[in-house]
Amino acid sequence: MVGKWHLGYNRKAPVPFQMMPTRHGFQDFYGLPYSNDMKPYSVIDGERVVDPNYYPAEKKAELTWRLTERALERIETYNKDE
Q1: Within its chain, how far is the Cα of 43 from the centroid?
Q2: Residue 69 pLDDT
Q3: d(CA 28, CA 2)
Q4: Can you say how many angstroms the Cα of residue 29 is from the centroid of all Cα atoms in its chain?
């Protein structure tokens, strides 16, 4: 899954990633754990926070490109024989 998960995660919880897509049937996840109007903005890769304070207003277009590139990579990886 690539994009916004909207169910969030709790950095301070004993199991902060329990609600993430990788715990609910998805093989991979890259994106925001909640809506882009909720702070702090964090980019997640699998179950790893790769950018805990991302997404200032001037980087919205950059995030769109990052999500697009990751989606294309995943399509190529998982569908390479089709």
Answers
A1: 5
A2: 93
A3: 8
A4: 5
